[in-house]
Specification:
Blueprint (H helix, E strand, L loop, with lengths): L1 H90 L2 H12 L11
């Protein structure tokens, strides 16, 4: 009788161990599937990130090109402004220009006024 109780308990424990092993194996398969799905998602995200970085590099290259073009046009505009000022100065007739220069250079110096 004691042997039968022990045998019954032993069989019951053996069934519990088998059930726990099956549950553990099932859980391991689930975790492996989840892990594989996460790896695939990480690869997809890595590819998307690389694509975004290539696009960003192209945008930065375009920005640099535009900045260089703006600088070139700015230089051209400054040159045109200088040319315009010079042409305006040439429009002054030489006698008027000479008179203007002489009037500036022949004015007597103004003495500073001292206030007490």
């Amino acid at each position: 009788m004691v042997e039968t109780v022990v045998a019954v308990q032993n069989n019951q424990l053996a069934r519990e161990i088998d059930a726990l092993r099956r549950a553990k194996d099932d859980r391991e398969r689930e975790l492996e599937a989840d892990n594989a799905a996460m790896r695939r998602e990480a690869e997809g995200l890595r590819g998307e990130l690389e694509s975004i970085l290539r696009e960003l590099q192209a945008i930065m290259d375009s920005k640099m090109g535009l900045e260089l073009e703006i600088a070139a046009y700015r230089k051209l505009l400054e040159g045109e402004e200088t040319r315009f000022v010079i042409s305006q100065m040439r429009e002054l007739t030489p006698p008027r220009l000479l008179h203007h220069i002489l009037s500036i250079s022949t004015r007597p110096p103004v003495a500073p006024v001292l206030h007490k």
